[in-house]
Write a structure and sequence with these properties.
Blueprint (H helix, E strand, L loop, with lengths): L2 E3 L17 E5 L1 E4 L5 E11 L2 E11 L4 E11 L4 E10 L6 E10 L3 E10 L4 E10 L11 E11 L4 E11 L2 E12 L8 E2 L3 E5 L3 E5 L2 E4 L4 E10 L2 E11 L3 E12 L7 E11 L5 E9 L4 H4 L7 E11 L3 E12 L12 E11 L7 E12 L19 E16 L5 E16 L7 E14 L2 E4 L5 E16 L33 E13 L5 E11 L19 E8 L4 E10 L3 E12 L3 E10 L11 E13 L2 E10 L4 E12 L4 E9 L9 E9 L20
Antiparallel strand pairs: 1-2, 2-4, 3-4, 4-5, 5-6, 6-7, 7-8, 8-9, 9-10, 10-11, 11-12, 12-13, 14-17, 15-16, 15-42, 16-18, 17-18, 18-19, 19-20, 20-21, 21-22, 22-23, 23-24, 24-25, 25-26, 26-27, 27-28, 28-29, 29-31, 30-31, 31-32, 32-33, 33-34, 34-35, 35-36, 36-37, 37-38, 38-39, 39-40, 40-41, ...
Length: 711
């Protein structure tokens, strides 16, 4: 019969046992021998001071105050450390002693095996002639890798493991020797030390090795130094992070001296800041800087063609939005001059939404400010600017009021009404064709009719159909306005029934027009979903506000066709196209994906016809493909492919292969990128990194799927 003692053990001479804290003991049998020895046997479980011991027999001798345990023994403390052993002799408070034929398991990841482990106190455990690994180990089998050491010390307070005269063995073959080695306990989140090194070789930088070193500056800030050395470059990378009570700051950059641009200092600096202020306000910042346009491409930092430095102050609420942003732009494109681009931009916007009780519907108010500055002082067209003046600057103040409401009539017919009034004042400098001060008042409205229909089929499928027609008109009283915020207009199902399809304020779609469309959807019981929409616009007069490729120019717009398919097999297809009288294809976009437990396949096709108004003299089209394939439980392949179908050449290819189990992560990558600028060159790169999982802090949680005896 099992006995349960839930009070302090106070038996003859045993008050020294666990004198400061109460202990709890469960056993099949408890005996008090004539010499004062306490013995518990049969599935013994002891709890004391956050430590749990499971053993077959426990004996406490009051004379020398020692605990003798006979195994199998399992000792577990609150830090996640587990010790398995055959025999142990411990002090009464369990803080010191000798454990024989033992294994230490740290956070269910790292195993340390030794013939004998000495617990110096509750903080330190040490052993001699030990083997340590995070691999899944079966009896009689050699782990994939292990660290053999003459002596090892585990500091549970600092969460550090110290190895002396250590060897790294792969399949029991010595590979590296370390006189002294320190590794973090896997339960430690952040600690100073080396991160996973990476070996790369590329046509631009040659063969290079990068060895990051993480420095913990405090509980809330750290720095990572990443020196990279090759025959063609000497680079020092840096990342600094600081977490405050209300936000974070992160800086990332590098400094290089290389043989690509001999004698020049090269590098980049990126940064972000995010802070939450009182009353719901947020302050955000972004820093982007580089020594030259080619650096980001050659050092594989980031694929961007424009640098943006900005400070944003904002507050977002359910019915109110306020935002103030200061931006500085710097183009990295060969075809653009920063002197004639709006490099300094200030934007401010305030939005308010209300729901008038007596009137019904939704009422929106918006006020905005936009200023742009170009460093060029030219007020006439430049040689390469086409019809645009080079150096003009602008300031715009705008207010916008919008109201919309729906009414449901008998038979489910819905009538929708929308109206808006906009006032904008422009101040323009250095533009010979535009007045220095312009005030524009724009008003418009729309009245629409739609009839949602639904039908349930015998086998459970639900079909929905909604024809819609809308009559809209907009008038504007203004002279010529410089268009800066609506240079690229997209015609899609999201703005088919909008009064003004331009995304900004500068461009206004005036005139009277009729928008027509038909949308349908079918939902099947097996979770297959099919949706589609077709629409077109008819105008009373021709408009020159939009480019030909936009599909919105002329008396009659192009046909807009959109479709979406989703299946329970993880396949999803989305397509959109603009057709001119169902004959000439203007724009097309197709996106498809297939996501399963093993596959993540995404493909995109985009096609555009030539349009000089959009600075595109020839037709362009491209195909992009991404595929992640888990072809074995521990093996993952990644592929990325981009192909310029208009010229029949690949623009980017990348392949990766990763092997990852509970104790090792091997990552190999190969890529080929083709330059699109005269200042860049084509680049081929190979990379390899090997990570011994389990010892690094912040380790990825990889499930241990292997079992002993399984193939």
């Amino acid at each position: 019969m099992r006995l349960l003692l839930l009070t302090l053990l106070w038996l003859t001479g045993a008050q020294a046992l666990w004198a400061q804290e109460s202990a709890h003991l469960i056993a099949d049998r408890i005996e008090l021998l004539p010499n004062g020895t306490l013995r518990a046997s049969g599935s013994v479980v002891v709890w004391h001071g956050g430590v749990q011991i499971m053993a077959q027999d426990i004996t406490y001798a009051s004379g020398d105050g020692r605990l003798s345990l006979t195994g199998p023994i399992k000792l577990q403390d609150g830090s996640g450390t587990v010790i398995l052993a055959d025999q142990a002799d411990l002090s009464p408070d369990l803080s010191a002693g000798i454990i024989k034929s033992a294994r230490i398991i740290l956070s269910q990841q790292v195993q340390i095996a030794a013939t004998q482990i000495s617990r110096v106190n509750s903080t330190y455990s040490q052993a001699s002639h030990v083997l340590a690994t995070s691999c899944f180990v079966c009896a009689g089998q050699t782990p994939l890798w292990q660290i053999w050491a003459k002596r090892i010390v585990h500091d549970s307070a600092e969460k550090q493991i110290y190895f002396k005269q250590a060897q790294l063995r792969v399949m029991d073959v010595p590979v590296f020797f370390f006189p002294y080695l320190r590794l973090p306990d896997p339960s430690l989140k952040r600690t100073t030390g080396f991160l996973v090194p990476e070996l790369t070789t590329s046509t631009t930088l040659g063969t290079a090795i990068r060895s990051p070193y993480f420095i913990k500056l405090g509980d809330h800030h750290d720095i990572t130094l990443s020196p990279m050395v090759s025959s063609r470059t000497k680079t020092l990378g840096l990342r600094y992070r600081h977490a405050y009570r209300t936000g974070t700051i992160e800086l990332e950059g590098a400094y290089s001296r290389d043989k690509i641009l001999v004698g020049q200092n090269r590098g980049y600096l990126f940064g972000t800041a995010n802070f939450g202020l009182d009353t719901g306000y947020a302050l955000r910042g972004q820093l982007q800087s580089t020594s030259d346009p080619a650096y980001l491409f050659e050092y594989d930092v980031k694929e961007i063609d424009r640098l943006e430095n900005k400070i944003t102050f904002e507050r977002n609420q359910r019915d109110r939005n306020i935002e103030l942003r200061f931006s500085n732009y710097h183009s990295l494109r060969d075809s653009e001059s920063n002197a004639t681009q709006p490099t300094l931009v200030t934007e401010a916007i305030a939005q308010q939404r209300s729901y008038p009780k007596g009137l019904g519907g939704v009422f929106d108010l918006e006020a905005s400010l936009l200023t742009s500055y170009r460093s060029s002082t030219s007020h006439v067209d430049g040689p390469d600017s086409g019809d645009e003046v080079d150096g003009y600057d602008t300031l715009r103040l705008s207010s916008l009021a919008k109201y919309r409401r729906d009414w449901v009539l008998p038979k489910g017919v819905v009538v929708d009404f929308a109206t808006e009034l906009e006032t904008s004042h422009y101040v323009v400098r250095q533009h010979q064709d535009i007045a220095p001060a312009i005030t524009r008042i724009t008003g418009g409205g729309a009245l629409g009719l739609r009839w949602p229909l639904a039908q349930r089929f015998v086998r459970g499928a639900l079909q929905q159909l909604e024809p819609r027609i809308q009559l809209a008109g907009v008038i504007a009283d203004s002279d010529t306005i410089p268009n800066q915020d609506s240079t690229q207009v997209e015609f899609d199902e999201g703005n088919l029934f909008r009064s003004n399809r331009a995304p900004g304020f500068d461009l206004v779609e005036t005139g009277t027009r009729m928008n027509v469309g038909l949308a349908g959807r079918i939902d099947y019981p097996n979770q297959t979903k099919i949706g589609w929409e077709i629409g077109r616009i008819y105008r009373t007069d021709s408009t020159n506000s939009f480019t030909n490729t936009s599909g919105l120019s002329g008396h009659v717009s192009d046909w807009l066709l959109a479709a979406h398919v989703q299946t329970p097999l993880g396949i999803e297809l989305f397509a959109r196209t603009l057709l001119e009288d169902f004959a000439q294809l203007k724009k097309s976009e197709v996106r498809t994906s297939w996501h399963t437990d093993k596959h993540r396949l995404d493909a995109t096709y985009v096609g555009l016809t030539a349009d000089e108004a959009e600075n595109r003299n020839v037709a362009l089209s491209s195909l992009a493909l991404k595929w992640n394939y888990q072809f074995l439980p521990d093996w993952l392949s990644t592929s990325e492919f981009q192909f310029d179908t208009s010229i029949g050449k690949a623009s980017k290819f990348k392949f990766g292969l990763e092997y990852a189990n509970e104790c090792v992560i091997v990552d190999f990558s190969a890529s080929r990128r083709f330059a699109t600028s005269a200042t860049l060159t084509d680049k081929t790169e190979f990379g390899l990194s090997v990570e011994l999982a389990g010892f690094s802090s912040g380790i990825r949680n990889i499930k241990k799927s292997r079992q002993c005896g399984a193939s």
